[in-house]
What we know:
alpha+beta, Deoxyribonuclease I, Chain A, seven-stranded mixed beta sheet
Amino acid sequence: MYRKLLPWHIDQKNHSVCIKKIENKHLKSDKFTLLNWNVHKNNHNFQWLHDFGQILHLYTPDFIAFQEYKTKSKRSILDSRKEYGYGFFSNIEMQKEDSGLINASTCDIEEFNPIFSKHVEPLIKTPKISFFTQYNLEDGQKLTLINTHMINFVKNKKYLSQIRQLEKLCADQDILILTGDFNTWSSKRMHLLKSMTDTLGLDQVSFEIDHHKKSYLAHPLDHLFYKGLKPIKSEILHQIKTSDHKPIIVEFTTTL
C-alpha cells in the first residue's frame, strides 16, 4: 500500500523511449570507442560535467552507455551535443526528473527495444531495465548495443529471470556489445551471467587492473561482453570520483 506514497512511479503500459535523431546514418570506421558508466544520477553535478567533458576530449567515444542517467525537465545533457544521437529509457519517473539508461552514439539508431524486468526491487518497487539499440555499419552489417542495469536485493531466481530476458535480446546478433551494471555481487550471480554469455559465445573484455572497477563484497559489478569484434584497448578511469562507479573505456575494431 505504501507504494502509492512514493514520489516516483513507472507506468510500463504507457511508457515510451525518448529518441534524439542525427543525420549520420552509419558508423564510418572499422574502429570505434565505447564509454560505459553508471553515473549514479550525478550527471548534472558541476564536477561530473567537467569530468565528462574531459572524457569526450581525450577519448571521443563513438558510443556511450550510461546507467542511472538523470534528466531534468525531460531534457538531456546530450541534447546540446550535436554529434550525438541517443535513446533514453527510464525506470524511475518523477515530476521533473527521470532516471534510467541512455545509449548515445555518433550514428543514428536504426532499431531499438526497451525491456523492463519482470520483477521489482523491494522497498522502492521499481523494475530494472535493459535497452537494445542497433546501428548500421558502413559495410552493411549491423552493430547491436545492449545496455543493462540488473535487478538488486532479490533472490537468484528473480535475477535469473532478467538474465533470460538478456539472453533473448542477445540471440542471433552477429556483432554485439553487452554492457552495463550487472550487480554481480555474489559468485552465484556471476555464474548465472557467465553461463548465459558462454552459451551465446560472447567474450568478456579484460582489464589490466580489474580491481579499479566498482565492487561489492569483492565482486566487480560492471562488465562488457562482445561478439564479432576485437577489443584493441581497455581502460578503467579510476581517478574519476564523481560517481560510485568508474568510467570504462574500450576501443573495438570490426576487423577480426
